[in-house]
């Protein structure tokens, strides 16, 4: 795998001494970095290190407080996203910047001259061409509403849009965090290919939390820490992967990283009674409809639910939590049906759900940490007495959680909206593991978290199982599932299509099951791969 | 607190009007009359206009504090507040549309009903209508307008038993809805009316505009009969007449009674008798018609024709409905 | 604190005063004289201050109604109709009740009846929003227009005072109205309705910020999906919020009638909503700030009317002054918010 | 009753419905555009009133109604420019600014009218109308629909223009994006601020023209506060229309028709209490909502100020 690196050509973009603060937070502090055509440049760093800020500056969304930006060697200001675009910088943001109610074609036409009729047919044609160029299989429908597409498709559409605008530098902020391993691998290959395109070599800026991805495709890896450039690495033959990993981790985290065990904790004793039983659960009113889902989780056991996003995992989790009614089947907690119980009652009996949508539903940004820890038991003593909030009790409870879960915040009254993703996740875990938890559903618990936060989260999940909880782990991250689960089921089209025991060989088996199921469910609105055109 | 002015040392009076005193109507007539009466009596007048219909109590208090020895609360909407504040501060108040609130030394009412004049207007209109259809357009249905609408219908019917009357209200509170007034008036004209009896504040200008712009169904001119004020200065040749209310005699009498210490021993009204109600004579009224009206006026004064005012909307509706179905 | 005060109140006030001064000068009026008279009448003269405080009563209740709804993310813009219907019901039953039972009981019954009336008038928009997801802005506004007409119908055909030709309800004698307060300091001309208003605003503020119930409402208002995740019954809470908010609007009508007006005339519609909506937004739904803004507005409306009359300018000047002041306060609020946002980032 | 059903009467009713509906239509179309872009323009009534006053002064001064319409439009846009500056560019609360502008315009036009016209109340001559050849001679609909002020035709044509803007122009896309997901528009290289400013100005133009129509064609005279709530009804119509200009037209005509029906009932002597009859249009809207009402389709970012790089502003 050799590829040209235009090391001596003028960089497409160089940043010199870039500084950016939000109030007293130094998001970027005197950062020097350059991006070249034909090079995949990975940005690494823990949550809050400044990666998105850097991307936002390149995108013209944020203005640096100081420092210089050189485009093709000449100093320029990127005053707006339009400016960035005109300079050949295309950005795929972490949160999709597509208008959900518009078709893809219209989303691509957006920003064109205001008086002109969007040339929809022509744009669609060019879109198909661009899609083909990045190895599309023609399944990206230009006239589909953006809101109806999967996350992967939306990302793909944004890349297509950037290419159609003749971008020379493509910036992708955490594009792989929401994708399945296959899709992520495809995307990584695609980046490689775009950079290597001899006719039009692109510069790629790739933000990720996954070291393996970084090492797989990065020509250069820049590590940010606390807004400063902590170092740079060129993975090459002179370095083993393990040395490279250790070097990177050393740059990312001052204290280094305690290595977490990679094999599943010992299986629970055979005698352990089932804690959570799902019996032939069906929900007609869902997309896809859930059919005959049966699961048994024993005390101390972690059952992983693998599969591509949007195959009924969310519906299953919501039905378990009591957020969504079901038509047939039953859910038993310690042998007793919870069918008639609402969220709060199930929470009280120990059935817990840590949602994957931390901002959208898991927390309320306008409320303090203390109250966010209690939103599933509002009104309960000792935090409320006679309906009146007891601030002291709420604060004390929150302080304990902050201490126990190492939540980095000023105090119990800090608003959830001011927390980073990793800390927000800790707040949710603290809430769901609080008190007499018996069974807990984790949905994509580490998505978007940096390596250290993710490892801490994994340790929590193991600890929960070790303490005798029944754990359901829903994830699209195959490594995560395999690393943690004693049993793995694969969901597709609203059913369970495979049951695979954890441990040796699970990874390959689950991967096979998922790709088989993908072929079966083609045509739906599932995530599609970035695979090569065959 | 300002001591209540002694009756015999009345030096200042005040009048409170809900809208601007430039409406060629109720507010303008009231304020002008108060000024004239005060001039005559040699007292000062404080004018508070544009007060709206909400809570007028603070203004009443302030005017009393400023030395007004008589408060004329010139809106039926003030007839609850004014006696209360008057009693509280010991200042005599004159109110309208609530005769039974009279109280010696404290409250007197000058319910102004122009029904006698409106009756004359109805007679005039009935006589002059070419199409045999008259229109009544009002911006709402307060009692003062109901009594005039009813009397107008009665007069028209007395003049011509088979006359048709088209009645329309612009809106629930359409006092300033000039566009609505014009639209409604045009519809009434299209329904055959060639004389419009119009009652409204700001909206009456919309009625006037409609009359000026729209021909009657027979192709001829549509006439307008106004109420309360005299719009002659702004007429463009369509103002047939107006039921003029002259409140100056009323206010003069009130001031005199306050000075004499007899305030509140009687209520006041407007009537043809003392010309506090009159029908405006314009050059557009033919001489013979005017003589005819003069005769009827005398009959009313002499008691040969007795009129009982109808203040409620249902009464008006009954009257105009029967007129609608007359033929 | 001082800096905040300057940003939030003093600077906008000065800006508004400056602009109003220009306007007055253009009209040939001495701005200093005008402002002097506004302050003199609205703030310094005992009866003016009493009037301003009395005027706050219904405004405060309307503010409480709006704060409750807005904090829960419900745009109840039908307050005027709810208010008027509440007022009509209170006015209709008060005179009869006053003769039958102790005053305090009669008042309480009237309050309850008015609140229930207001709440009933919000049922349709509440139901449409809760069960059918119909945006409540349009439906509540339409109900408000309907309510204004219905109030007139009730007055004219059901509750008309037989003793008068004016279409209005029977007048509640002054002696039977809510007692006046502040004998010593305020000259005894302040309606105790203002206490009900203050109590309502503070209560709503307290409930929203300090109780379990208020927390549930805030969650619904801030993030409906999080509310579902937390197991809250969003449709039911929506109905409850609508009912409480409309009930407070109805109560405002009752307090206005029992404390000040004594009766309701057909066609009367003070349209307090239009005034109070911007005030509670400026207060950022904070009860204490709302009280300050309502007081400011009352002083301005009482003082402005007097100043205009004394200087011979049309009373419309007050409207323009209020408009400029609102804009000034909005500028101040935005500056302050920006300041606090940067501070929060620093935290 | 039957004898009342003359062509003249039917014509007047239909013509009246159109006359009452057109200002609502013009203002409603403008408001719809503004709402689409994410700005809740609650001060629409103020823009109408400003348009009405300016149109009156200009038409009176020049003797030419066309200058009146132009002036009305410009005045509406003037107030809209304030709205745009304060609520879009500076990001101040849209509702506070909207209501403040309404109060300010109400006060200012009343003062100006007081100073200039309160003793003379001048009226405007009848506005010119254009007869559409062929159609204007039809009974009833001819004079009521096809022999009207050109502004009536323009208003109806505007519906088509709006549909065309929505479907066929880059601006239409920008509008949607600015209201649904402003950051996406920004990221795509469009300008949220410019789009919203343009939409607010368009709303001002529509409202100003509507006010001008009310004065020049409708009333023939200006009196203070004469818009009498029309602006709020236009806002409601724009919301009810859920983004479809044609629905604004239907709503405006329905409203005008209800007003005409109210008058017709009264004129026909049907003895129903006026207040009950006048509930008609509002009851009609509620009925529509109760029967057909479904989930709200208002733009996601409606009413929210946007600044680039503010993560909370989506
Ligand atoms: N708009 C903003 N306002 C205030 N502070 C901000 C803003 N955006 C980012 N920050 C702060 O700046 C710092 C850097 O944030 P940034 O988003 O660049 O980190 P990141 O490296 O992308 O993190 P992650 O891995 O979680 O995506 C953080 O402390 C963050 O809290
Ligand atoms: N106004 C703000 N004040 C302080 N911190 C903020 C503010 N807005 C955003 N942040 C923080 O800035 C950080 C970066 O924001 P960004 O939009 O990049 O999210 P992110 O952290 O990358 O997202 P995720 O948590 O999904 O990885 C987040 O941690 C967020 O909590
Ligand atoms: Mg980031
Ligand atoms: Mg992140």
From TrEMBL, chain A:
Q: Which of UniProt's keywords are assigned here?
A: ATP-binding, Nucleotide-binding, Repeat, Sugar transport, Transport
Q: Which PROSITE patterns match?
A: ABC_TRANSPORTER_1, ABC_TRANSPORTER_2
Q: Does the keyword Repeat apply?
A: yes
GO MF assignments: ATP binding; ATP hydrolysis activity
Q: Which parts of the sequence belong to the ABC transporter domain?
A: 13-251, 273-518
SMART domains, alphabetically? AAA (SM00382)
Family designation: Belongs to the ABC transporter superfamily.
Question: Can you say what this protein is called?
Answer: Simple sugar transport system ATP-binding protein
Q: Which organism is it from?
A: Pseudochelatococcus contaminans
UniProtKB/TrEMBL annotation, chain C:
Q: Which residue windows are transmembrane per the record?
A: 48-70, 82-98, 104-128, 140-159, 185-208, 238-260, 272-296, 316-335
Which protein, by its recorded name, is this? Simple sugar transport system permease protein
Provide the topology term for how it sits in the membrane.
Multi-pass membrane protein
**Where does the source fall among the domains of life?**
Bacteria
**PROSITE patterns recorded:** PROKAR_LIPOPROTEIN
- Spell out the molecular function terms from Gene Ontology: transmembrane transporter activity
Q: Give Gene Ontology CC terms.
A: plasma membrane
Keyword list (alphabetical) reads: Cell membrane, Membrane, Sugar transport, Transmembrane, Transmembrane helix, Transport
- Biological source species: Pseudochelatococcus contaminans
Show the InterPro entries listed in the entry: ABC_transp_permease
- Just give the chief location class: membrane
Question: Where is this chain's protein located in or outside the cell?
Answer: Cell membrane
UniProtKB/TrEMBL annotation, chain D:
Q: Does the keyword Transmembrane apply?
A: yes
Intracellular or extracellular location(s): Cell membrane
Keyword annotations from UniProtKB, A to Z: Cell membrane, Membrane, Sugar transport, Transmembrane, Transmembrane helix, Transport
Query: What main location does UniProt list?
Result: membrane
What InterPro entries has UniProt attached to this entry? ABC_transp_permease
Q: Name one GO cellular component term.
A: plasma membrane
Any one Pfam family here would be BPD_transp_2
Q: Where are the transmembrane segments?
A: 6-27, 39-60, 66-88, 95-116, 150-166, 197-216, 222-241, 248-268, 280-302
Where does the record locate the signal sequence feature? none
One molecular function GO term is: transmembrane transporter activity
Asked whether the UniProt record includes Hydrolase among its keywords, one would answer: no
The way this protein sits in the membrane is described as:
Multi-pass membrane protein
Entries under PANTHER family matching the protein = ABC TRANSPORTER PERMEASE PROTEIN (PTHR43370:SF2), SUGAR ABC TRANSPORTER INTEGRAL MEMBRANE PROTEIN-RELATED (PTHR43370)
Q: What is this protein called?
A: Simple sugar transport system permease protein
Taxonomic lineage of the native organism: Bacteria, Pseudomonadati, Pseudomonadota, Alphaproteobacteria, Hyphomicrobiales
């Amino acid at each position: 795998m050799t590829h040209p690196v235009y090391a001596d050509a003028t960089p497409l973009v160089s940043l010199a001494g870039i500084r950016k603060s939000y109030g007293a937070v130094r998001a970027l502090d005197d950062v020097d970095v350059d991006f070249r055509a034909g090079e995949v440049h990975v940005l690494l760093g823990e949550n809050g290190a400044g990666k998105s800020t850097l991307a936002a500056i390149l995108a013209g969304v944020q203005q640096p407080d100081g420092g210089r930006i050189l485009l093709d060697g000449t100093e320029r200001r990127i005053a707006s996203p339009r400016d960035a675009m005109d300079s050949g910088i295309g950005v795929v943001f972490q949160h999709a910047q597509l208008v959900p109610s518009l078709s893809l074609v219209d989303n691509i036409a957006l920003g064109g001259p205001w008086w002109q009729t969007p040339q929809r047919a022509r744009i669609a044609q060019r879109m198909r061409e661009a899609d083909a160029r990045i190895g599309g299989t023609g399944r990206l429908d230009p006239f589909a509403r953006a809101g109806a597409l999967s996350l992967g498709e939306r990302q793909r559409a944004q890349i297509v849009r950037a290419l159609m605008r003749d971008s020379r530098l493509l910036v992708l902020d955490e594009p792989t965090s929401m994708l399945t391993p296959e899709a992520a691998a495809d995307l990584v290959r695609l980046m490689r290919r775009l950079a290597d395109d001899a006719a039009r070599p692109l510069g790629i800026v790739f933000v990720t939390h996954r070291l393996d991805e970084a090492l797989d495709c990065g020509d250069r890896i820049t590590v940010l820490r606390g807004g400063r450039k902590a170092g740079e690495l060129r993975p090459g033959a002179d370095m083993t992967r393990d040395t490279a990993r250790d070097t990177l981790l050393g740059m990312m985290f001052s204290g280094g990283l305690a290595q977490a065990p990679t094999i599943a904790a010992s299986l629970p004793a055979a005698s352990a009674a089932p804690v959570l039983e799902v019996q032939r659960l069906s929900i007609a009113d869902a997309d896809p409809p859930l059919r005959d889902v049966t699961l048994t989780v024993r005390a101390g056991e972690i059952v992983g639910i693998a599969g591509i996003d949007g195959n009924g995992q969310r519906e299953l989790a919501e039905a378990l939590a009591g957020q969504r009614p079901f038509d047939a089947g039953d859910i038993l907690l310690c042998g007793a049906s919870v069918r008639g119980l609402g969220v709060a009652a199930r929470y009280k009996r120990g059935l817990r759900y840590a949602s994957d949508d931390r901002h959208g539903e898991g927390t309320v940004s306008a409320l303090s940490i203390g109250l966010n820890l209690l939103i599933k038991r509002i009104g309960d003593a000792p935090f409320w007495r006679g309906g009146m909030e007891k601030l002291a009790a709420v604060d004390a409870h929150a302080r304990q959680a902050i201490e126990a879960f190492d939540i980095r915040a000023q105090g119990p009254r800090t608003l959830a909206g001011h927390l980073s993703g990793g800390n927000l996740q800790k707040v949710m875990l603290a809430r769901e593991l609080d008190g007499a938890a018996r069974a807990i559903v984790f949905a994509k618990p580490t998505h978007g978290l940096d390596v250290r936060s993710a490892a801490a989260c994994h340790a929590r999940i193991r600890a929960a199982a070790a303490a005798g909880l029944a754990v359901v782990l829903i994830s699209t991250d195959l490594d995560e599932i395999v690393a943690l689960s004693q049993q793995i089921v694969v969901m597709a089209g609203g059913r369970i299509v495979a049951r695979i025991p954890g441990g040796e060989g699970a990874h390959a088996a689950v991967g096979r099951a998922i790709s088989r199921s993908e072929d079966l469910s083609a045509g739906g609105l599932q995530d599609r791969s970035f695979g090569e055109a065959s | 607190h300002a001591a209540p002015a002694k009756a015999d040392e009345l030096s200042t009076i005040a009048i409170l009007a809900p809208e601007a005193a430039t409406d060629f109507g109720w507010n303008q007539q009231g304020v002008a009359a108060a000024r004239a009466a005060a001039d005559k009596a040699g007292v000062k007048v404080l004018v508070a206009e544009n007060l709206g219909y909400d809570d007028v109590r603070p203004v009443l208090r302030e005017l009393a504090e400023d030395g007004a020895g008589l408060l004329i609360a010139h809106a039926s909407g003030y007839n609850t507040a004014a006696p209360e504040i008057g009693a509280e501060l010991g200042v005599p108040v004159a109110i309208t549309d609530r005769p039974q609130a009279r109280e010696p030394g404290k409250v007197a009412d000058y319910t102004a009903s122009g029904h006698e004049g409106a009756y004359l207007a109805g007679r005039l209109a009935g006589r002059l209508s070419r199409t045999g259809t008259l229109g009544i357009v009002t911006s709402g249905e307060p009692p003062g307008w109901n009594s005039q609408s009813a009397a107008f219908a009665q007069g028209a019917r007395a003049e011509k038993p088979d006359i048709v009357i088209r009645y329309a209200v612009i809106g629930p509170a359409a006092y300033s809805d000039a566009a609505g007034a014009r639209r409604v008036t045009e519809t009434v004209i299209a329904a055959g009316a060639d004389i419009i009896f119009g009652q409204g504040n700001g909206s009456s200008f919309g009625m006037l505009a409609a009359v000026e712009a729209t021909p009657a169904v027979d192709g001829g001119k549509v006439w307008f009969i106004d109420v309360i004020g005299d719009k002659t200065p702004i007429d463009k040749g369509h103002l047939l007449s107006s039921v003029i209310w002259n409140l100056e005699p009323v206010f003069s009498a009130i001031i005199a009674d306050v000075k004499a210490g007899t305030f509140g021993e009687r209520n006041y009204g407007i009537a043809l008798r003392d010309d506090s109600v009159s029908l405006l004579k314009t050059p557009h009224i033919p001489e013979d018609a005017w003589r005819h009206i003069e005769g009827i006026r005398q009959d009313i004064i002499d008691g040969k024709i007795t009129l009982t005012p109808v203040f409620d909307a249902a009464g008006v509706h009954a009257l105009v409905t029967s007129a609608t179905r007359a033929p | 604190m001082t800096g905040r005060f300057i940003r939030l109140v003093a600077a906008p006030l000065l800006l508004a005063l400056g602009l109003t001064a220009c306007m007055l000068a253009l009209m040939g009026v001495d701005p200093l004289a005008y402002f002097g008279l506004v302050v003199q009448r609205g703030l310094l003269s005992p009866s003016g201050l009493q009037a301003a405080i009395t005027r706050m009563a219904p405004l405060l209740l309307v503010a409480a109604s709006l704060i409750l709804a807005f904090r829960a993310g419900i745009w109840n813009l039908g307050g005027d109709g709810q208010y008027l219907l509440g007022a009509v019901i209170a006015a209709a039953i008060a005179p009869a009740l006053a003769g039958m039972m102790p005053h305090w009981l009669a008042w309480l019954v009237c309050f309850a009846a008015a609140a229930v009336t207001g709440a009933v008038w919000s049922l349709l928009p509440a139901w449409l929003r809760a069960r059918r997801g119909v945006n409540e802005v349009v439906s509540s506004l339409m109900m408000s227009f309907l309510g204004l007409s219905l109030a007139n119908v009730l007055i004219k055909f059901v509750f008309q005072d037989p003793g008068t030709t004016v279409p209005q309800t029977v007048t509640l004698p002054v002696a039977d109205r809510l007692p006046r307060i502040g004998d010593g300091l305020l000259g005894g001309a302040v309606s105790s309705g203002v206490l009900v208003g203050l109590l309502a605003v503070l209560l709503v503020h307290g409930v929203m910020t300090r109780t379990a119930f208020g927390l549930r409402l805030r969650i619904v208002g801030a993030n409906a999906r999080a509310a579902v995740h937390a197991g809250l019954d969003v449709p039911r809470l929506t109905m409850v919020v609508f009912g409480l908010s409309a009930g407070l609007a109805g109560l405002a009508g009752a307090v206005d009638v029992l404390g000040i007006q004594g009766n309701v005339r057909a066609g009367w519609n003070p349209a307090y909503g239009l005034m109070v909506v911007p005030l509670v937004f400026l207060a950022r739904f904070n009860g204490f700030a709302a009280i300050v803004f309502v007081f400011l507005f009352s002083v301005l409306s009482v003082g402005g009317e007097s100043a205009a009359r004394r200087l011979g300018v049309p009373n419309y000047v007050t409207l323009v002054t209020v408009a400029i002041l609102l804009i000034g306060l909005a500028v101040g609020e935005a500056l302050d918010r920006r300041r606090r946002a940067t501070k929060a980032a620093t935290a | 009753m039957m004898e009342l059903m003359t062509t003249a009467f039917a014509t007047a009713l239909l013509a009246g419905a159109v006359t009452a509906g057109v200002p609502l239509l013009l203002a409603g179309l403008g408001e719809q555009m503004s709402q689409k872009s994410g700005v809740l323009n609650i001060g629409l009534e103020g823009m109408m009133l400003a348009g009405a006053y300016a149109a009156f002064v200009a038409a009176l001064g020049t003797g030419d109604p066309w200058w009146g319409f132009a002036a009305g439009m410009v005045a509406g846009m003037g107030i809209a420019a304030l709205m745009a500056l304060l609520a879009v560019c500076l990001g101040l609360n849209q509702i506070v600014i909207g209501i403040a502008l309404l109060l300010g315009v109400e006060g200012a036009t009343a003062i100006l009218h007081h100073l200039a016209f309160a003793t003379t109340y001048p009226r405007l001559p009848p506005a010119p109308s254009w007869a559409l050849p062929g159609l204007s001679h039809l009974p009833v609909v001819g004079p009521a629909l096809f022999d009207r002020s050109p502004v009536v035709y323009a208003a109806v044509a505007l519906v088509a223009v709006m549909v065309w803007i929505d479907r066929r122009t880059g601006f239409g896309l920008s509008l949607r994006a600015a209201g649904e997901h402003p950051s996406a528009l920004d990221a795509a290289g469009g300008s949220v601020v410019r789009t919203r400013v343009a939409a607010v100005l368009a709303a001002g133009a529509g409202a100003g023209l509507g006010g001008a129509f009310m004065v020049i064609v409708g009333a023939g005279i200006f009196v203070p506060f004469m818009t009498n709530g029309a602006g709020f009804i236009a806002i409601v119509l724009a919301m009810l229309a859920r983004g479809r200009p044609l629905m604004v037209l239907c709503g405006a005509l329905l409203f005008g028709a209800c007003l005409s029906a109210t008058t017709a009932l009264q004129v026909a002597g049907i003895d129903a209490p006026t207040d009950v009859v006048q509930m008609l249009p509002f009851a009609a809207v509620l009925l529509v909502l109760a029967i057909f009402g479904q989930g709200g389709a208002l733009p996601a970012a409606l009413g929210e100020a946007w600044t680039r790089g503010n993560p909370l502003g989506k």
